[in-house]
Design brief:
By secondary structure, this protein is mainly alpha-helical. The protein is about 55% helix and about 10% strand. The protein folds into three domains: about 1-85, no CATH class; about 100-205, DNA polymerase, domain 1 (Orthogonal Bundle), CATH 1.10.150; about 215-385, hpI Integrase, Chain A, CATH 1.10.443.10. Pfam families: Arm-DNA-bind_5, Phage_int_SAM_5, Phage_integrase.
Length: about 425
């Protein structure tokens, strides 16, 4: 819903007059655009947003205001015809005559980062900011526009990143963030799709190493039986890992935000922050033990786990706390794996990966695994089950070898 109105500001200026401004409201947010008109309260008709006859040149001035409103409505109509979900800043730029395709990549990055922070998505803003800093360390021109980012430039940016000790995974991460920003620029009409460089430059060519290995069911049992009385500093890490694993791979961010209000009877109800999918999970006995333990702690907040220690934290405070606690969680898991002689890289993500793989090993169909994890399509689930597929292929290859040996033996026996 977009609304445009010409109003008289309530704040008086140095001349004792009140500025006449254009106010545009979109998605419950407003922006004020000055129009270089001003008058006294007695000269303004608030009901029809016009100057009264007492205002000098009121006819010509009211005609000018009508043309201004007509121009604003045309700008909005143009955006809507092009199916562009414009921002208030983009409206002002077009209203003032600045062409969208002249908006620089640097300016667009800044605007996007500001919008993410305002909406509380501090983690996303941080990732975009890091990509911006990296890209403009490579490209020194702050006035570069999107259509100047070519496949050739991306190839050179890739070389720059590798020369600065970025792994293929690090390069892929920054390229995906840059691609995401470019897609938003296309959606908002800042650049035409015909200039899209990622049709030619393929991020998939980057070989991502360190494939995360799922823990076997036996390895998860080792963690279940881990004696925290000998290592009390690792107790929280054990609880969080098992809670994640037995709650269908609930990720760390959702565990951090989980409240006692999300628990009713023997079920956990929550909305996954990443996909907004709704979950309704049965509380298994081991999960109930963990919940009972933290209920007894009486932490003084509505949160289940002692990650966020107070209510009403700002988005930045939540992000900082998440970073600190996730770092400790992953460190604790590595120490636990070393003690238990689990020779696999282990992190918070591995709990989710292990749940998917072990559920599949138990005989569940892939679509059931997909539904249990809240994936929007089975292709995402398959990426979790790569190790499982490899195991199946290895077994089939070994069987093939054995059959080949038998066949060769039988042939030799008859050939004699």
């Amino acid at each position: 819903m977009v609304n445009v109105k010409i109003i008289l500001r309530k704040k008086v200026n140095n001349e004792g007059l009140y500025p006449v401004v254009l106010r545009i409201t979109k998605d419950r947010k407003s922006k004020i655009i000055s129009l270089n008109f001003k008058c006294s309260l007695n000269d303004w008709n608030d009901s029809n947003s016009q100057f009264k006859k007492s205002f000098h040149n009121h006819s010509q001035s009211n005609l000018a205001l009508a043309r201004i409103k007509e121009k604003a409505l045309k700008v909005i109509n143009d955006f809507q015809l092009d199916e562009i979900d414009f921002t208030l800043e983009q409206f002002e730029e077009k209203f003032r005559g600045k062409e969208l395709n002249k908006i620089s990549v640097f300016e667009f990055f800044d605007e996007l980062i500001t919008d993410l922070i305002k909406s509380g998505r501090v983690g996303n803003a941080k990732a975009i900011r890091e990509t911006k800093q990296s890209f403009f360390s490579f490209c020194k021109r702050k006035n570069i526009v999107f259509k100047e980012i070519t496949p050739s430039m991306l190839d050179k940016y890739e070389v720059f990143l590798k020369q600065n000790n970025n792994s293929d995974g690090g390069v892929a991460f920054k390229m995906r963030e840059l691609r995401s920003v470019y897609n938003k620029a296309i959606k908002q009409g800042v650049v035409q799709e015909k200039y899209y460089p990622f049709k030619i430059y393929k991020i998939s060519k980057l070989k991502i190493g360190n494939i995360k290995k799922a823990l076997t069911r036996e390895e998860v049992r080792l963690i279940e039986n881990f004696d925290v009385s000998l290592y009390p500093n690792l107790a929280e890490g054990k609880s969080l890992f098992l809670f994640s694993y037995f709650c269908r791979g609930m990720n760390f961010y959702d565990m951090m935000l989980l409240k006692w209000a999300n628990i009713s009877g023997n079920r956990i109800y929550y909305i996954r922050s990443k996909t907004k999918g709704r979950f309704n999970i049965e509380i298994l006995p081991i999960v109930q033990e963990i919940l009972d333990f933290y209920k007894m702690q009486n932490l003084g907040t509505d949160y289940v786990f002692p990650i966020l220690l107070k209510e009403n934290m700002t988005a930045t405070e939540i992000q900082n706390r998440k970073h600190k606690k996730l770092k400790k969680f992953n460190s604790d898991l590595k120490k636990m794996a070393e003690i238990l002689e689990i020779n696999k890289p282990i992190s918070s993500y591995v709990a989710r990966h292990s749940f998917a793989t072990n559920l599949k090993h138990s005989g569940a169909a892939t679509d059931i695994v997909s539904q249990s994890m809240g994936h929007k399509n089975v292709a995402i689930t398959m990426s979790y089950l790569k190790d499982f597929d490899n195991d199946i292929i290895d077994k089939e290859m070994n069987r093939l070898v054995q059959e080949s040996v038998i066949t060769h033996y039988e042939y030799s026996r008859f050939a004699v």
